[in-house]
Amino acid sequence: MNKVDRDALLIFPSLVLLGLGLAWAGSQGGVQVWGMPLFGVAIGLAYFIQWAVFFPSLLHQTEKFFDLTGSLTYISITLLLFFLSPGKDARSFLLLLVVVIWAVRLGTFLFGRIHKDGKDDRFDTIKPSFFRFLNVWTLQGLWVSLTAAAAWAAISSTTRAAFDVLAAAGLLIWALGFVVEVVADSQKSRFNANPANKGKFIQSGLWSLSRHPNYLGEIVLWVGVAVMALPVLRGWQWVGLISPVFVAVLLTRISGIPLTLEHIIPRVAGGADEEENLWVSCRLCNEFKGVQTEAIDPQTGRATPLYNPRAQNWERHFAWSDDGTEIIGLSDIGRATVAALSLNTEFRVRSRAIWVEAGHHPPR
Q1: Tens digits of residue pLDDT in 13-43
Q2: Which three-class secondary structure state does DSSP give residue 263?
Q3: Cα(67)–Cα(172) distance, rounded to whole angstroms?
Q4: Which of 28, 151, 176, 306 lies at 20 to 30 Å from 168 by C-alpha?
Q5: What are 43-95's pLDDT values in tens digits?
């Protein structure tokens, strides 16, 4: 067993323990079925469904049903919770409705994307490894559980409350977030479908108001779910409110790392604020670049212009290492850029290793 697989094996128990902790906390004050807490059963099923699909996916070396499985997990478990809970009311039905609508829309969107693309390149180096591929599916079980925690805790709670201002307010917040997310995704899909926009970043519609309106909509809609659930949560069930916090952290700090606008030619060197001189960059890359426009190629020792994302092709100058954690410079421009922007620091390599395990890296 190599080091990558050993590390993956060590990560697996942590993912399971986090799920067990969530199951225990959210089950307090919840409905019991067959002598077991219904919320805990839901968390267990979220993991079990992923593992059940993992084995045939491993056998056939495919990731085509990964996103669809996640969406179906949301739908099936939320329906199960609703029908097994004895105290069905308007709030529970509303929570069921918004989760199912969101999951159907997400599942359709993601499954259609991978069906169109044929495959997800991020899984290429993960699928051959039993433990790394298992961790990706297990992590999805945890992701589903944390995201749906507020809704599931409220639906399975023994406490009931009449449809009130918080339920109505939560529904309005959810609707606002859902509309923003759907419209933003639609606008970006249409923008990317136009060959004339290749290499450009959308700055029209909702994207002219927010750099990532789709992320904003996703966060807002789960805040709405939490607001709807709030009146019936008691004691340790309050752990369910981790749902919108988890989504926000996931999108803004993990899978959707905040980006900044880079001036390809720095303003101090006469660079303009026009679109042709701007590019979306990670914050660290932008900080390391500073006002540099060239750097020393470590191989030749000569000063070389830095990579220009508007004028040059990434694949001609860079490649990912076999494990997806390091960027390799293929040309003098690539090598100089890797060195100048410190693209392979220990922090970055370790971070990418975590993203690889989660199936979010390398980017497609």
Answers
A1: 999 999 999 999 999 989 998 899 999 999 9
A2: strand
A3: 27
A4: 28
A5: 999 999 999 999 999 998 988 888 889 999 999 999 999 999 987 899 999 99
The model's pTM is 0.74
What single letter denotes the amino acid at residue 323?
D
User: Which pLDDT does position 189 carry in this prediction?
Assistant: 85
Strands 327-329 and 318-320: antiparallel
CA angle 41, 111, 75 (to 5 degrees): 25
DSSP state of 204: S
With beta carbons less than 8 A apart as the criterion, state whether 92 and 113 touch. no
d(CA 310, CA 198): 10
Q: Is the CB of residue 15 less than 8 Å from the CB of residue 135?
A: yes
Take residue 115 and report the two structure tokens written for it.
Answer: 């069906």
Report yes or no: 363 and 122 within 8 Å, Cβ to Cβ.
Answer: yes
Backbone angles phi, psi at 20, to 5 degrees: -65, -40
Q: At 295, is the secondary structure helix, strand, or coil?
A: strand
Q: What is the per-residue pLDDT across 254-293, written as a single tens digit (0 to 9) for each?
A: 665 556 667 788 888 888 877 778 777 776 777 788 888 8
Distances (CA, A) of 74 to 49, 95, 148, 309: 11, 12, 7, 39
Instruction: Give the Cα separation of 14 and 315 in Å (integer).
Output: 36
* CB-count exposure of residue 174 (10 Å: 0-12, 13-18, 19+): buried
Q: Do you know the residue count of the chain?
A: 364
Contacts of 167 (CB under 8 A, 6+ apart): 90, 91, 94, 228, 231
Quick one: tokens of 302?
A: 């000569």
The answer to whether the CB of 22 falls within 8 A of the CB of 149 is yes
